């Protein structure tokens, strides 16, 4: 049985930066869905000239400049990696730093004005940290305007040397002023984005922590081990397999169930897991399966009685710290 004090001394107590960053990226989706109609309305009335959207955006208090750019990035399906690669060959694609394009039956030219920083999600403030700021404006950060103009009109460029994906993805400019087509494009795109991110369910930090541990195990265990690809041969109701957070299967066919709990603030989740711990271990042991727990967070360590129960009825218990998760990997490889 793992000593509670020793377990706590090896815990992180508060969310690791990797999980916080993932949560930030996921949690922006509700705001994007909430502001998509504002985004559509801005482009609908911006068909007088290529930069008309700038004037309309200034008058719209519901959508910040970097969130407007985030809409463009998601709708174009052009992320930071693609932008960085393009920027690496910028002078080849945009002679004299100019984007020349045909729009609304006329030729137009836009001069990029801020090329000192590489194009990336961080540098244009559309990563998790950037979107949490409310002081980003095109006036103070013209790089935001440069990337926006590229995403809107890049696909209409007269330069045939641009990568093919630019002409396929950077097409929003062709929809400006076309109310129904633009609305349909945006709505359908966000339905797809919602499915990719798992919708509201993905907002749960609990799901992110489970994924964090699962990904760690997939990366650190040998390639012939299976993670979350099998069912447990036990059931509480004789109909469905016992549900746990993670299932690991060794090449020899042995299984280990893993339960994950990270609570910064105290709640009843760990009490529920503790109440099930003895019966779960007995059930799993009856089929020669093992059970381990990954427990962390200041809130969980306040529930000493529940922690003792989990440690007592666990075959192995660790925290979220990387060295602790490595101990779990060692345990699995030596005992399954």
Automatic annotation (TrEMBL):
Pfam families: RE_BanI, RE_BanI_C. Residues 180-335 form the BanI/HgiCI C-terminal domain. Residues 14-177 form the BanI/HgiCI N-terminal domain. Signal peptide: none annotated. This is Restriction endonuclease.
């Amino acid at each position: 049985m793992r000593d509670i004090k020793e377990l706590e001394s090896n815990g992180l107590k508060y969310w690791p930066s990797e999980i916080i960053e993932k949560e930030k990226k996921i949690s922006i989706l509700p705001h994007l869905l909430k502001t998509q109609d504002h985004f559509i309305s801005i482009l609908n009335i911006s068909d007088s000239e290529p930069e008309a959207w700038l004037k309309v955006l200034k008058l719209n208090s519901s959508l910040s400049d970097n969130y407007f750019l985030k809409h463009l990035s998601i709708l174009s399906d052009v992320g930071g990696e693609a932008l960085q690669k393009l920027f690496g060959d910028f002078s080849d694609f945009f002679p004299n730093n100019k984007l020349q394009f045909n729009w609304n039956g006329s030729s137009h030219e836009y001069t990029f004005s801020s090329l000192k920083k590489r194009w990336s999600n961080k540098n244009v403030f559309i990563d998790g940290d950037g979107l949490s700021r409310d002081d980003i404006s095109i006036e103070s950060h013209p790089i935001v305007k440069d990337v926006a103009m590229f995403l809107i009109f890049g696909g209409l460029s007269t330069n045939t040397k641009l990568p093919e994906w630019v002409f396929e993805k950077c097409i929003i400019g062709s929809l400006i002023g076309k109310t129904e087509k633009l609305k349909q494009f945006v709505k359908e795109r966000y339905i797809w984005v919602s499915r990719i991110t798992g919708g509201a369910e993905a907002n749960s930090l609990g799901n992110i922590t489970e994924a964090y541990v699962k990904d760690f195990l997939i990366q650190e265990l040998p390639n012939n081990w299976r993670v979350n690809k099998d069912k447990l041969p036990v059931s509480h109701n004789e109909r469905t397999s016992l549900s746990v957070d993670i299932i690991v299967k060794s090449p020899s066919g042995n299984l280990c169930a893993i339960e994950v709990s990270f609570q910064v603030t105290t709640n009843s989740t760990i009490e529920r897991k503790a109440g099930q711990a003895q019966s779960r271990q007995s059930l799993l042991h009856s089929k020669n399966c093992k059970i381990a727990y990954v427990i962390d967070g200041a809130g969980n360590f306040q529930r000493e009685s529940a922690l003792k129960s989990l440690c007592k009825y666990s075959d192995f218990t660790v925290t979220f710290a990387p060295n602790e998760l490595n101990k779990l990997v060692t345990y699995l490889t030596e005992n399954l």
